[in-house]
Design brief:
Two copies of one chain form a homodimer. By secondary structure, chain A is of the alpha+beta class. The first copy, chain A, has a single domain, classed as Nucleoside Triphosphate Pyrophosphohydrolase (Alpha-Beta Complex). Chain A has five helices and eight strands; from the N terminus they run βββαββαβαααββ. In chain A, strands 1, 2, 3, 4, 5 and 6 form a six-stranded mixed β-sheet that branches. A two-stranded antiparallel sheet of chain A has the order 7-8. In chain A, a hairpin with a 6-residue loop joins strand 1 and strand 2. Chains A and B meet through strand 4 and helix 3 of A and strand 4 and helix 3 of B.
Chain lengths: ~220, ~220
């Protein structure tokens, strides 16, 4: 599962979006589903997740994290345990890779808040991932995965607003992140149609809830 | 994997402890390992975890949570993916169930901080679980799983100290938990050899990082 943020056309609203694949065979032929595939005997879980993602969507995120293993007996006509991985992609990575993904038939990006009925238990899986995302944004630097290395406070707030699904007060938000010690102000500014806004980056020295001793293992 | 807290004999120290099973066949015959077993085609993941736990240790925790799926290619002579569940047991639950568990040959409780070299990658799995436990204690009511329904602030602090592996200042700790809004003082007191200490319970109305929309599914 890949999440990114997309600005709705003709709007200031930024939303969480994800790519889905239209199933070309039964069960659930014609329905949209999360990209996935089988584990080869000689590949690790994360390697299989990367491979099937790249084969089905053309996307290759630099970092996938294990989300959850779904194994209810009735989730598929035959017994299938799905070990789901997820990634956050920065909007600029997506836009460069989107051309190739969009060229693939049967792959399409959806607004996570207004999904159709998906194949299997995939709506439940997306709901669980969105819940984890909302929780996680509070205690880790997960928002970083959706931003460029340097960003303005307004851009960071937009990420939080998209994930939490509600507006945040700009002054309160600024105070909270400035007090958290997780951001480092740079000497650079974003200029454009608005007045210049200072760029920040994440302080990598602050220990937050990351993957811990697992590192790159799976 | 089951964690509980145990007071070291002849000491005031409380430590995180877990039950291990001595392997009676190859690979790794004679080494200690986490309890586990195979998934039947007609049982859910959590049902299989409960069943194998009960068969091997005699313990039946009321609540198991999925920890992580371990699937490195070389973690076993044949390809094995282990979907690990964990539970926290209150010390009083353990002491009643311990007799039956201790009667089983080849089952023994270990101090999590001083484990021997375990079979397979089970040391890594325990290390990962301990890391998750340390992280989680900060942002959820996970400590609750190790306590009776009502507890003193000193008992709660002991849980945090055991998980974090360091002493906490009693006055600071009291201030932090009182400010958190997660505890409700009762009208009851623990009496005994010390001066009476007020009993608290967790405020179930505070929404913290629990399992979310998954509920009891797996």
């Amino acid at each position: 599962m890949i999440f990114t943020l997309r600005r709705l056309p003709g709007s200031d609203d930024v939303r969480v979006a994800l790519p889905l694949v239209r199933r070309t065979r039964d069960p659930h032929e014609g329905q949209w589903a999360l990209p996935g595939g089988w584990l080869d005997v000689s590949e690790s879980l994360v390697a299989a997740a990367s491979r099937t993602l790249s084969e089905t969507t053309g996307l290759a995120p630099s970092y996938l994290e294990q989300l959850y293993a779904f194994g209810a007996v009735d989730r598929s006509p035959t017994r299938v345990v799905s070990i789901v991985y997820w990634a956050l992609l920065r909007a600029d990575d997506v836009s460069t890779e989107l051309d190739s993904a969009d060229q693939r038939e049967n792959v399409q990006w959806f607004d996570a808040a207004t999904l159709p009925r998906l194949a299997f238990d995939h709506n439940e899986i997306v709901d669980y991932a969105l819940w984890r995302l909302r929780n996680k944004v509070g205690y880790s630097r997960i928002a970083h995965g959706l931003l460029a290395d340097e960003f303005t406070l307004a851009e960071l707030r937009e990420v939080y607003e998209a994930i939490l699904g509600r507006r945040l007060d700009p002054a309160n938000f600024r105070r909270q992140v400035e007090n958290s010690g997780t951001l480092i102000p740079t000497d650079r500014f974003r200029t454009g149609s608005h007045r210049p806004a200072r760029l920040y980056r994440y302080n990598q020295d602050v220990e937050l809830a990351d993957r811990g001793p697992l590192g790159d293992r799976d």
